[in-house]
Write a structure and sequence with these properties.
By secondary structure, the chain is an all-alpha fold. Helix content is 79%, strand content 0%. The longest helix is centred in the last third of the chain and has 35 residues. It is flat.
Length: 140
């Protein structure tokens, strides 16, 4: 049947596959959680009920994921547009990332040293004017 075909086959393939993989992982975790919570400590036929509920959950949510990622025009068009935009992104080179990381680490060290010196300066000032006593500085 044509109504069951995937909307815009082949377009946005990788975006759909990664989204489906992430959703499938969450679905599997949710199904296992449901099965373990409903069937925890159960004996006899209750385990079958827990398994049936987990399978119903798996089927219902799995169908919803398939519909959203494969057949819903709004979602699929969004994923296709997302993949198109990601191809236009100018990704940084490894050298640029390493240099930027070095700048961030150096800047954070300078800020940390500055904050430490300001803290010690204020503590010394407050100690001199009698607002703090020596026991406060010794416990740090």
């Amino acid at each position: 049947m044509a109504s069951e075909a995937i909307y815009k086959t082949g377009q946005g393939y990788w975006t759909r596959m990664v989204s489906a993989s992430a959703a499938g992982l969450l679905l599997a975790q949710g199904t296992f959680w449901m099965w373990s919570k409903v069937g925890a400590g159960a004996v006899g036929t209750t385990k079958y009920v827990a398994a049936a509920l987990a399978l119903v959950f798996l089927g219902a949510v799995g169908s919803g994921i398939f519909w959203a990622l494969g057949r819903n025009p709004r979602t699929v068009d969004f994923l296709i547009a997302t993949e198109g935009e990601m191809k236009k992104v100018n990704w940084s080179t490894r050298r640029e990332v390493v240099n930027s990381t070095g700048v961030v680490i150096f800047t954070m060290l300078v800020i940390a040293i500055f904050c430490f010196l300001c803290d010690r300066g204020f503590a010394w000032t407050f100690l001199q004017i009698g607002v703090l006593d020596n026991s406060v500085l010794e416990t740090e």
